[in-house]
């Protein structure tokens, strides 16, 4: 049973999310602020942490920075609607993904399961099966390992969030075919979450930027204005 730490100063969120995760078979610890969580983590680390960014005593950014000095355990940030700068900073500091408030609890559960599977695979505690969902996908210079949530471009590692990974996977599965923004929304979000076109565009923009850290001439993701996006195998 995986242990999940929830850190948020909103007691309603702590209570409702904890109930959902426990119903899904997780062991859950809750903390009202970053300092309280850090004190507990210094005694024993959970398997994963879900952190609010803005909290009293110690915010999520400070807590993440201290955690990354001692552990690579998965961390998801909970961010408010207008926290794009915080999202970018958090990802640069080592957060694995973020979910915007208000959020679907089912979406959060799926993000948690995905990151835990990736961590288990990296630790060698699970064995990949040969299915379309788990086998490595090769598309030209791109290699994607869904089970390990690993991406390489021209042999260089590229670190993506869960959402970015899902979007790239959806595009690369059928090179040359156009995916509309609505189709990409269905890939990245469940049906209880509304996102507008700009959200997908922002994810694609960050995805391209990360791929260009491995190759500044990366151009495999093509924008078809008014239609959607297409992956062109190079």
Task: Report Rg.
Answer: 18 Å
Strand content: 15-25%
User: How would a textbook summarize the main sheet?
Assistant: 5 strands, parallel
Succession of helices and strands = EHEHEHEHEHEEEEHEHHEE
Number of helices: 8
Distance between the termini: 42 Å
Task: Summarize the structure in words.
The structure is a single chain. The chain is of the alpha/beta class and 234 residues long. Helix content is 41%, strand content 21%. The protein is built from eight helices and twelve strands. The chain has a five-stranded parallel beta sheet with strand order 2-1-3-4-5, sandwiched between helices. Helix 6 (162-172) packs across helix 8 (197-214). The longest helix has 18 residues, at 105-122. The chain starts with a strand and ends with a strand.
Labels describing this entry:
alpha/beta; 41% helix; 4-stranded antiparallel β-sheet; 234 residues; 8 helices; single chain; 5-stranded parallel β-sheet
SSE arrangement:
Elements: E1 3-7, H1 11-23, E2 27-31, H2 34-43, E3 48-52, H3 60-67, E4 75-79, H4 84-93, E5 97-100, H5 105-122, E6 137-139, E7 142-145, E8 150-153, E9 156-158, H6 162-172, E10 178-180, H7 181-188, H8 197-214, E11 221-224, E12 228-231
Parallel strand pairs: 1-2, 1-3, 3-4, 4-5
Antiparallel strand pairs: 6-7, 7-8, 8-9, 10-12, 11-12
Helix pairs in contact: 2-3, 6-8
């Amino acid at each position: 049973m995986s242990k999940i730490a929830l850190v948020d100063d909103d007691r309603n969120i702590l209570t409702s999310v904890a109930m959902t995760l426990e119903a899904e078979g997780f062991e859950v610890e809750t903390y009202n602020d970053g300092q309280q969580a850090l004190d507990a983590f210094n005694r024993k680390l959970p398997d994963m942490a879900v952190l609010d960014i803005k909290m009293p005593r110690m915010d999520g950014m400070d807590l993440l920075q201290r955690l990354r000095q001692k552990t690579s355990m998965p961390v998801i940030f909970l961010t408010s609607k207008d926290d794009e700068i915080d999202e970018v900073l958090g990802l640069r500091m080592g957060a694995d993904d973020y979910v915007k408030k208000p959020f679907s609890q089912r979406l959060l559960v799926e993000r948690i399961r995905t990151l835990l599977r990736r961590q288990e695979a990296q630790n060698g505690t699970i064995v990949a099966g040969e299915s379309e969902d788990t086998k490595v996908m090769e598309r030209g210079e791109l290699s994607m390992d869904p089970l390990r949530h690993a991406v390489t471009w021209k042999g260089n590692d590229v670190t993506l969030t869960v959402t970015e990974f899902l979007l790239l996977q959806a595009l690369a599965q059928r090179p040359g075919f156009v995916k509309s923004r609505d189709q990409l929304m269905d890939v990245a979000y469940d049906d209880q979450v509304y996102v507008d076109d700009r959200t997908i565009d922002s994810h694609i923009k960050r995805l391209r930027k990360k791929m260009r850290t491995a190759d500044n001439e990366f151009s495999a993701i093509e924008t078809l204005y008014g239609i959607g996006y297409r992956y062109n195998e190079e």
